[in-house]
Amino acid sequence: MALTDVTIHNTKPGEKQQKLYDGGGLLLLVTPTGSKRWIFKYRFAGKEKSPALGVYPDVPLADARKRRDDAREKLAAHIDPGEAKKAGKRAARLAAANSFEAVALAWMEERGQSVESGQYEKTLARFRNDAFPWLGKRPIAEIDTPEILAVLKRVDSRGARFTAHRLRSETSPVLRFAIKEGYCKTDPARDLVGAIPPAQTTHFASITEPAKVAEMLRAFDAFSGTFPVLCALRLAPMLFVRPGELR
User: Fold this and answer.
1) Which residues touch 3 (CB under 8 Å, ≥6 apart)?
2) Residues 32/51, Cβ–Cβ less than 8 Å
3) Which of 20, 73, 138, 156 has the fewest CB within 10 Å, making it most exposed?
């Protein structure tokens, strides 16, 4: 006799396990502790098997029957449903290990030994803010060029064109790293060079008149702040480097 929700709800745990049969190989196992687990019993290649289909009430009766029916369809196609479920779990674990985020972080770890900490943090921030939310969980072997382009366009649309270019130039090495490690076979970001229009360069005002240059140098000499800053101000006109490079 097929089960009903009322029957399941009214079944109380006893001293021994109870088996409530629904038909077609589906049964509900009620343990002395009160847990209720769905089991699907079947035979494959001469062996009896009984994989779990979930816990009641997280998996209600209707869902348990659907899972049973799906398993029976596999049996009709000469596929072991239990092994198919295990293969699916293995594939999911492999996909998680080979996700874009996991591979990108592995590339970052390898790269971290040869770049400055500031550049490392900027690259990591770009990935976390603009790539991982959309590509992070995707298996890296399944990511294609249009998918990456959509991410770059999303960044560009908020007015961060320079960031979009940087993100593309940092995504491509991640994919080449994945090729080296055997996670994928191609670099779909390679074909996106020029896909985003060039960023407009903004030039800052500069002093070109000799009299004003002299005035600036006198201001440097008259600086009354800390000694390291005074040294930097006096070195800058002789070294011709950007302020951020003079440390």
Assistant:
1) 20, 21, 22, 28, 61
2) no
3) 73
Does the domain spanning 5-78 belong to CATH 3.40.710.10?
no
* Alpha-carbon span 127 to 170, nearest angstrom: 9
Please give the Cα distance from 28 to 56 (Å, whole number): 8
Q: Are the C-beta atoms of residues 135 and 147 closer than 8 Å to each other?
A: yes
Q: Half-sphere exposure of 96 toward its Cβ, with a 13 Å CA cutoff?
A: 6
State the Cα–Cα distance between residues 181 and 149, nearest whole angstrom: 24
Q: Where are the domains of the chain?
A: 5-78, 100-181, 210-239
Query: Which is it for strands 26-30 and 36-40: parallel, antiparallel or unpaired?
Result: antiparallel
Q: Which two three-digit tokens encode residue 58?
A: 């997280």
The identity of residue 18, as a single letter, is: Q
pTM: 0.53
Quick: pLDDT tens for 103-157.
999 999 988 777 888 889 999 999 999 999 999 999 999 999 999 999 999 999 9
